[in-house]
Hints:
By secondary structure, this protein is of the alpha+beta class. The chain folds into 2 domains: 4-221, no CATH class; 225-299, no CATH class. It is built from 9 helices and 15 strands. The protein has helices at residues 4-26, 28-36, 48-66, 73-86, 89-102, 131-144, 150-155, 160-167, 191-218, and strands at 42-43, 117-118, 126-127, 172-173, 177-180, 187-190, 225-228, 232-239, 243-251, 256-261, 265-269, 271-273, 279-281, 294-295, 298-299. The chain has a 6-stranded antiparallel β-sheet, with helices on one face. Helix 2 (28-36) packs antiparallel against helix 5 (89-102) and helix 3 packs antiparallel against helix 4 (73-86). The longest helix has 28 residues, at 191-218. The radius of gyration is 22 Å and the shape is elongated. The model has no long low-confidence stretch (mean pLDDT 90).
Amino acid sequence: MTTKQEAYREEYREYLMELFSKAWNTRPIDFIYTLLRVSGVQYGHWDPFSEILDAFEDYNKFLDFSDTLEGKAPFRVGLLMYCQAIEITAIHELFANLIRCCSGQDFVIKPFIESQKQKKREPLYYIPPSANTKVKILKELALKSNDLKFQEIFDSFYNDQIRNSFVHSDYCITSDEYRWTEGGPPSSVSLEYINELITRTFAFFEVLLQAWKSWLIWFNNHPKYIRLPQYEVFELLTNETDGLYGFAMHFSNGQRAYFERYSEVVDSRNLTLNKDGSINFFVGDLSKLEMEWKVDGKVFIG
């Protein structure tokens, strides 16, 4: 017999497989940037996404352990993990760029930058957009790209009233209800609904991370070099363990740019950003560019 969690996984897997595949088929290079989460240089552990991977392993252990808890405890533990999961900025950014790829747009490093608010008299600090704001933006992006399924998928597990009431400690749990009072008239939902939200959320994120990892590994069997129209050669950097971990761009004048992401190091060279946050390159001496494809200064035949 199929469990609820297995049914949810299958529902989400079908959608995510279609989303990732469409992104790859529509904008392959930007899709690669999206999988790699191209960013600035980092040394040491500064990557929230890798922390997420560790956190979800811990969360799954807690979910197994929560079966032994009684009373309100399993719901409190579950909601704590639920709120952590749906707040993850790195996941929101991943989705924003997947949807952008599907609609033929460039990858951008910070897709929500226009929604952040600058702090007065503090030019280096800003207020990031809320989870609800980012989800609304994602729904708008999806609608513009004719993705009519995204909202249905997200609404199946994302409930901002539950998130907001729990993180602000404005809730009560009875024997059969979750209740809150802030932001409007007193409201409540059944604990069965809360349990379904938590179950759906972790089914979704489990399948999402599996899809992301499987695409990285998939590139191990993909041709390593891609010819681009402007006599550039795009090289996929892969290894057996991680799959895709970076890329290099070869120019006909012998110049090379690259991006590499490891567990605690992000390194790059000759990458720059356009004003809109999309990726560009320092090409070097433009007068030495030739009308032929080259890799490391040698004519590329492939």
